[in-house]
């Protein structure tokens, strides 16, 4: 039996980071796209980022793309939501930090949960898998045809994290799909159903305080992938980190900043190995 893991208010939590993105916008495969280039403009190792519900314009994800570009990857962030991402204001308004959230009353938590449902419910229906997956498949196939591209990886966060897992299954994909995938705290996953077909190198990052994917579920994912003895895969669990920590953690917290830096390095190491 597959266990479905949904979305909750922590998907809408986090911090807006400081800094100015250095990439540019262009249209790729018919989608508005943020592009972060390497110093030598090489596209040999390309990475497609699948965002969370806040989409391609969120400063945090663009700054992260810039960091991957500095590490030697040509990065694309397509507007998979097609100008319909959830407003970034919900980062501050919908869900407080973990320390505050733990002090909320049952009534306060219920009120917040109702607010989240009203925002996420219609959005998730509009951007269901039958609509979203073909967009992602088409974008990745287009990237593979761009001159100078050698290998392509996919990096997903939260809502986009599940699609990174799905892209790690090349069955039925045109031209073999991606060469490697990295999913950070994926949401709305089905375990083991989404992981049993995986046949491309897959790296996963979870926080041990993730309210969407508990440690029992992580254990089931580990067991599902463990039988794939010839498939490169890894799962790293970050202490005291909540859902969304790799993209929307608090830079002012030394512990959170360290976790974000290590998760970035996890992805850089993974793609350096499997996109080379």
UniProtKB/TrEMBL annotation:
MF terms (GO), sorted A to Z: hydrolase activity
A UniProt-annotated Pfam family: DLH
Keywords on record: Hydrolase
Keyword field contains Hydrolase: yes
Superkingdom, natural source: Eukaryota
Alphabetical list of InterPro entries matching this protein: AB_hydrolase_fold, Dienelactn_hydro
Domain Dienelactone hydrolase: 32-275
Record protein name field: Dienelactone hydrolase family protein-like protein
Species this protein is from: Xylona heveae (strain CBS 132557 / TC161)
